[in-house]
Task: inverse folding
C-alpha cells in the first residue's frame, strides 16, 4: 500500500506500468520519418569536413589553408592546430572546412597542406614489457585487503592461475558523431546534436566558444536532438568538431554547417573502450569457498587515464590484492563505453572463477552460489534467485557438463555463466506537465531517447497517474528549451524521467481533483483517476469522464512541475544480473556459434517490460559483437588503425546472434525498490559468459576476446600439447 | 573522391576506345560496388570512368554447347544465384556465389566485377599500396597479417585474391573473353591472374585498354562444390575457400580439380590435392589427405598459421560436399 504521496501504485492498481507496451516512437523510427541530426538538410546548409593527421604522434611544423580557402564553393576554413601543436593519435583533426557540398568540402580538405615532424609512437599495448621498455606506462593503482600471500600459501588452498583480456574496441555508433550548427543572428546559436546530453549542450558549447573569443550567452543557445543513432557513452558533448562547426558557421555568415564524422574518423577518434589484460591467481578451499585473489592488470585508453577495471568483480574474497598499470598508447582517447570498465573486470573475474571451478571439479553455478555472500549484501538474494532462474531457463542441469564436450565429432557444445552489477540511480530531472480544459495533456523535458524508450516511459508514467491511455499523453523532449534534464549516461534516464514525471503528474492530477471535487460533492482526497474517469473512491457512481472533468477548469490550464530527486522513495541504485551462454564450437575451424543467451536481469520496478527487454536484447547483441568480432586493429609501424570501416571492424548481424531469452526479475522484492536503470548492466556479462561457454565446450580457455578462429585454434593446439 | 569524367558508351568497341593504355588513368565500371568505394578512399583515382551499363547484351546467361554456360560480364550475382541452368549443372558455382552475402551486393555486383575486384588487403585499402611497401620493404610480414596469404607469399605480394567465383571457375576450366583495340581474345581463367611485382602492375593479365565481356564455362558432368570459412554469417570475406570439381566413376575419383581461394595473391590450384584424390574412393580420410596435400607447401606468416588448418578443412569439406551432391 502506498504510504507516501508520490509512491508508485501497488501492483493491483497498475493499468500500464509493468505491462508490455509498444515504443511510441517506433513507427517514426522504423518508417524513416524520424529525423536524425544526419538528416537535417535545410536550405543553404553547408557541409563541414575535417582534415585529419595521418600520424600517431607528431608535431605540426606548418599548416597552410590558403589553397582550400580559394576553392570555389568553400565558405570557411579554419586551422584547428597551429605550428608547434602536438598530435597524439592518427585521425585527430588539424583543420576544418565548410563548403556548399560534400565533394567540394572533401576537395578543399585535400588542398590543406600540413607538414609534420613525426615523433615516436606506441599503439599496441598487449605486450606490457614492450610498453614498459618504451617508457609508456603509468601506475594505475594498487590495493591490498586482508593477507592474500598467506591465504595463497595455505596448504589446503586450491589455486588457479590464468591470463585473460580484451582489446580496445570502439563505440561504432551507426549515426556517427556530429552536429549541425547555425547562427540565426549574431548572438544566437541553434545546434542539432547527435547527443546523449540535450540540456547540457548549451553550457558546454557556450563555454568552449567563449574560450575561442566567440561571444555567445548560454541562454541564446538551443541544443536540439529528437533522435540519436547510438551513443553508448561517447556522445556527452558537442565535441571539438561541434565547436569547429560553430566557428565555421560564424565565418560563413551564420549559415547552417552540418559536420558529421566520416566513418574512419568516427572509429579512429570518436570513442574507444579501454583494453584490459590481467594475470590472475585465485584461491579457494576444497569446498569452493573463495579465500584469495591477486591480479596484475594493464590496459590502454589512449594517452590519458582511463580508470581501472574494478577487480575482483562483485565477488570479493576476503584476502585480495590488485595492481593496475595504464599503458599510454597513441590511439583516440577512451570514452565511457556502456558500463565503463565493468565488461573488462567481469571477463577477468568470471573467467578466473570459471577456471577455478574446473580445477575444483565444481559446477560453476554452484561455485557462484556458494560464494554469493562475498557480493554486496543488497544483491545476494537477487543473485541467488537469478542464478536459479537463469539455470532453469537455460536447462543448465541437463546441458552443462564438466569442461570439454566428450561427444564425438568436431562440433562441441558448452555452457558458461557470469554475473554483473551496476548502479543506475535516476538522474536529475525536471518536467513540466500541462493539462488543458479540453483534456489534452502535454509533458515536456529537456531529455533525449538514447534507446531507453524515454518517450514511452514518460507517456506510461503520466498516463498511469492520470488514469489515461498512453496515446492521450503528448510527450515532448529533445530541446534544451524544455526543463533541464540529466544526460543519458550511467543508466540514469528511465529512473530520472519516471520519477520526475510521476511527481509532476500527481501534483497536476491533485490540482484537477481540487477543481472537480465540488461538482461531485466530495472531498478532493476521495477522488481517483481510473480508466479515463475521475471518480469518488467512496462512491464510484460519482464520476466524470476525463474530458468532463477537465472542462470544469473553465479557462484555467493546469501546469505542474516535477523534479527528481524529490520526496518519497521512487527509485534506487544497484542492480544484479546473471547470464548463461550456450555455444557450439567447430574444433576444426575455430568458429564459435552462439546458440542461446539467457539473461535474468533486475532493475527494480519495470515501467515497460517490452522496452526493458529490448534494452537487454540490444545489450546482448553488442555483447556478441565484442565477444566474437570487435577489435581496433593497429599497425605498430605505421601507428594507424587498419580497420576504420564497417568491413573489417566487424559487427555481428542477425545470423550471428543466436536465440536470446530475457527474464526481467519483477514482483515482491524487486518492485518496491522503485525504478533503477537498465541500459548498462546487461552488456557486462556476455563476454565472460561466452568465453566460459567456449572453455566448457572445448576444454581449454581462449584467453582473450574476441574469440576468433585463429585464437580458438591456437588455444586448442596449446591444450593438446599440454 | 577525385573529380572524373564519366563515359557511358553503347558498345564494347566504343568502351575500348575510351580506355587508356596504362593503368590508373581510366577504369571500367560494371556494378561499381568495388570501384566506387576504392575511388572514395583514393585507392584508385581514374580521370575517366567507363561504365558498361548501356552496353547491350552483357547481362545474359546463355547455355553453351554440351550443357555449358556463357555468362555476360554484367550478369549480377543475384541472376547467377537464380539461374536454373547454373543451379542444375554447376552447384559449386552457385555455392561460391552464395558466399557473397548481402542483397545489395548481389543485386549490384556483377560476375565480371567479381573477377576483377581489387584485393581487400587493409594496407592496400588504407592507401599504402598493393605491395604495402615502405622503404622497399613490405609492412606485412611484421605487421597485421592474420588475413594475408599463406601460399605464393614469397613476396613481394602478400594480399589474397578476393574472388570466390574465380577459383570455382578455374576448377571448371572456364575462359574469359577480352575485347581490346585489336579485337577479342580468349584467356583461360587459370592463366588470367598473376602476382604483381611492382606497384605499376595489377593482379591479372587483362590490359588497361581491354574489357572483359564474357565467361565461358564448358559443359561438364563433374561434381562441383565450394566450401568457404568466414568469421561472420553475414557479409564477410572468407578466411579461406576451397572449390572442387570431381570427375567420378561410381565412387572412384577419375580426376579432380581442387582450387583454393583467399589464400594466395592468385587463386591457387592444388595439383597436389588433385593427385592425392585420383583413383581413390572418396571418403572422409581420403578427403582429409587431399586437404593436407593442398596445404603441404603453405608458408604461414606470423599471424596466419590458422589459415593453413582452415584451408585443409575447407578442402576436406568441399570434397565431401561435392560427393554428397549437395545443391
Result:
Amino acid at each position: 500500500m502506498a504510504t507516501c504521496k508520490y509512491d508508485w501504485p501497488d501492483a493491483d492498481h497498475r493499468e500500464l506500468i509493468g505491462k508490455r507496451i509498444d515504443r511510441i516512437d517506433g513507427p517514426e523510427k522504423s518508417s524513416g520519418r524520424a529525423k536524425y541530426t544526419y538528416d537535417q538538410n535545410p536550405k543553404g546548409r553547408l557541409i563541414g569536413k575535417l582534415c585529419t593527421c595521418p600520424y600517431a604522434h607528431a608535431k605540426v611544423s606548418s599548416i597552410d589553408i590558403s589553397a582550400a580557402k580559394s576553392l570555389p564553393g568553400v565558405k570557411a576554413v579554419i586551422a584547428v592546430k597551429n605550428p608547434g601543436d602536438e598530435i597524439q593519435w592518427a585521425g585527430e583533426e588539424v583543420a576544418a572546412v565548410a563548403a556548399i557540398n560534400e565533394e567540394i568540402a572533401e576537395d578543399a580538405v585535400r588542398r590543406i597542406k600540413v607538414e609534420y615532424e613525426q615523433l615516436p609512437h606506441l599503439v599496441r599495448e598487449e605486450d606490457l614489457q614492450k610498453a614498459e621498455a618504451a617508457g609508456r606506462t603509468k601506475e594505475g593503482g594498487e590495493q591490498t585487503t586482508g593477507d592474500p600471500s598467506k591465504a595463497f600459501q595455505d596448504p589446503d588452498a586450491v589455486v588457479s592461475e590464468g591470463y585473460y583480456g580484451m582489446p580496445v574496441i570502439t563505440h561504432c555508433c551507426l549515426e556517427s558523431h556530429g552536429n549541425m550548427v547555425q547562427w540565426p543572428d549574431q548572438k544566437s546559436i541553434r545546434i542539432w546534436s547527435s547527443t546523449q546530453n540535450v540540456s547540457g549542450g548549451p553550457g558546454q558549447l557556450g563555454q568552449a566558444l567563449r574560450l575561442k573569443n566567440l561571444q555567445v550567452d548560454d541562454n541564446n543557445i538551443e541544443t536540439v536532438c529528437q533522435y540519436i543513432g547510438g551513443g553508448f557513452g561517447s556522445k556527452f558533448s558537442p565535441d571539438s568538431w561541434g565547436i569547429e562547426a560553430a566557428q565555421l558557421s560564424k565565418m560563413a555568415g551564420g549559415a547552417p554547417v552540418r559536420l558529421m564524422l566520416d566513418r574512419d574518423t568516427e572509429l579512429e577518434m570518436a570513442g574507444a573502450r579501454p583494453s584490459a589484460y590481467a594475470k590472475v591467481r585465485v584461491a579457494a578451499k576444497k569446498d569452493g569457498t573463495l579465500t584469495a585473489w591477486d591480479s596484475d592488470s594493464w590496459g590502454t585508453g589512449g594517452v590519458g587515464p582511463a580508470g581501472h577495471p574494478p577487480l575482483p568483480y562483485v565477488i570479493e574474497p576476503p584476502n585480495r590484492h590488485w595492481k593496475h598499470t595504464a599503458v599510454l598508447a597513441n590511439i583516440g582517447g577512451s570514452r565511457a563505453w556502456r558500463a565503463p570498465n565493468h565488461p573488462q573486470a567481469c571477463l577477468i573475474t568470471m573467467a578466473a572463477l570459471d577456471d577455478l571451478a574446473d580445477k575444483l571439479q565444481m559446477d560453476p553455478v554452484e561455485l557462484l552460489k556458494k560464494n554469493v555472500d562475498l557480493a554486496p549484501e543488497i544483491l545476494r538474494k537477487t543473485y541467488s534467485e537469478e542464478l536459479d532462474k537463469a539455470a532453469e531457463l537455460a536447462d543448465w542441469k541437463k546441458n552443462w557438463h564438466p569442461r570439454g564436450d566428450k561427444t564425438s565429432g568436431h562440433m562441441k557444445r558448452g555452457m558458461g555463466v557470469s554475473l554483473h552489477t551496476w548502479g543506475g540511480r535516476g538522474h536529475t530531472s525536471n518536467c513540466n506537465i500541462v493539462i488543458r480544459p479540453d483534456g489534452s495533456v502535454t509533458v515536456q523535458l529537456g531529455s533525449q531517447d538514447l534507446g531507453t524508450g524515454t518517450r514511452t516511459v514518460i507517456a506510461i508514467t503520466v498516463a498511469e497517474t492520470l488514469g489515461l491511455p498512453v496515446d492521450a499523453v503528448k510527450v515532448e523532449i529533445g530541446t534544451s528549451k524544455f526543463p533541464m534534464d540529466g544526460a543519458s549516461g550511467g543508466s540514469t534516464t528511465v529512473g530520472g524521467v519516471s520519477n520526475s514525471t510521476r511527481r509532476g503528474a500527481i501534483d497536476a492530477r491533485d490540482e484537477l481533483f481540487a477543481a472537480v471535487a465540488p461538482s461531485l460533492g466530495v472531498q478532493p482526497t476521495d477522488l481517483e483517476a481510473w480508466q479515463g474517469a475521475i471518480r469518488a473512491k467512496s462512491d464510484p457512481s460519482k464520476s466524470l469522464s476525463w474530458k468532463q472533468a477537465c472542462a470544469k477548469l473553465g479557462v484555467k490550464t493546469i501546469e505542474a512541475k516535477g523534479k527528481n530527486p524529490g520526496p518519497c522513495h521512487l527509485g534506487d541504485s544497484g542492480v544484479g544480473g546473471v547470464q548463461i551462454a550456450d555455444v557450439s564450437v567447430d574444433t576444426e575451424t575455430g568458429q564459435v556459434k552462439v546458440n542461446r543467451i539467457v539473461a535474468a536481469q533486475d532493475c527494480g520496478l519495470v515501467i515497460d517490460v517490452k522496452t526493458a527487454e529490448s534494452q537487454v536484447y540490444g545489450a546482448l547483441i553488442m555483447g556478441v559483437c565484442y565477444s566474437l568480432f570487435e577489435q581496433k586493429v593497429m599497425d605498430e609501424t605505421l601507428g594507424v588503425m587498419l580497420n576504420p570501416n564497417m568491413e573489417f571492424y566487424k559487427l555481428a548481424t542477425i545470423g550471428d546472434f543466436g536465440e536470446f531469452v530475457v527474464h526481467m526479475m519483477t514482483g515482491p522484492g524487486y518492485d518496491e525498490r522503485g525504478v533503477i536503470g537498465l541500459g548498462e548492466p546487461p552488456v557486462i556479462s556476455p563476454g565472460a559468459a561466452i568465453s566460459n561457454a567456449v572453455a566448457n565446450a572445448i576444454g581449454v580457455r581462449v584467453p582473450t576476446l574476441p574469440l576468433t578462429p585463429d585464437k580458438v585454434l591456437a588455444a586448442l593446439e596449446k591444450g593438446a600439447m599440454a | 573522391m577525385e573529380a572524373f569524367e564519366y563515359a557511358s558508351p553503347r558498345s564494347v568497341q566504343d568502351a575500348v576506345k575510351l580506355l587508356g593504355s596504362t593503368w590508373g588513368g581510366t577504369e571500367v565500371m560494371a556494378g561499381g560496388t568495388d570501384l566506387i568505394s576504392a575511388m572514395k578512399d583514393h585507392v584508385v583515382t581514374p580521370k575517366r570512368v567507363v561504365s558498361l551499363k548501356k552496353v547491350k547484351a552483357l547481362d545474359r546467361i546463355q547455355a553453351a554447347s554440351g550443357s555449358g554456360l556463357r555468362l555476360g560480364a554484367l550478369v549480377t550475382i543475384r541472376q547467377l544465384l537464380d539461374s536454373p541452368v547454373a543451379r542444375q549443372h554447376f552447384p559449386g558455382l552457385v555455392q561460391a556465389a552464395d558466399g557473397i552475402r548481402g542483397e545489395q551486393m548481389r543485386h549490384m555486383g556483377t560476375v565480371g566485377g567479381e573477377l576483377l575486384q581489387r584485393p581487400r588487403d587493409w594496407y592496400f585499402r588504407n592507401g599504402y599500396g598493393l605491395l604495402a611497401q615502405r622503404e622497399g620493404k613490405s609492412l606485412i610480414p611484421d605487421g597485421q597479417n592474420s588475413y594475408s596469404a599463406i601460399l605464393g607469399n614469397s613476396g613481394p605480394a602478400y594480399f589474397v585474391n578476393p574472388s570466390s567465383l574465380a577459383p570455382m571457375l578455374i576448377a571448371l576450366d572456364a575462359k574469359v573473353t577480352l575485347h581490346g583495340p585489336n579485337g577479342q581474345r580468349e584467356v583461360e581463367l587459370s592463366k588470367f591472374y598473376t602476382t604483381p611485382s611492382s606497384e605499376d602492375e595489377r593482379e591479372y593479365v587483362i590490359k588497361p585498354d581491354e574489357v572483359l565481356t564474357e565467361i565461358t564455362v564448358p559443359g561438364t558432368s563433374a561434381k562441383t562444390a565450394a566450401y568457404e570459412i568466414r568469421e561472420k554469417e553475414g557479409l564477410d570475406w572468407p578466411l579461406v575457400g576451397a572449390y572442387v570439381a570431381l570427375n567420378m566413376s561410381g565412387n572412384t575419383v577419375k580426376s579432380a580439380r581442387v582450387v583454393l581461394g583467399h589464400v594466395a595473391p592468385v587463386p591457387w590450384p592444388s595439383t597436389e590435392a588433385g593427385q592425392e584424390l585420383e583413383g581413390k574412393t572418396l571418403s572422409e580420410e581420403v578427403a582429409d589427405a587431399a586437404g593436407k596435400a593442398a596445404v603441404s607447401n603453405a608458408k604461414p606468416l606470423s599471424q596466419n598459421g590458422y589459415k593453413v588448418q582452415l584451408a585443409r578443412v575447407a578442402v576436406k569439406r568441399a570434397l565431401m560436399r561435392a560427393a554428397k551432391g549437395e545443391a
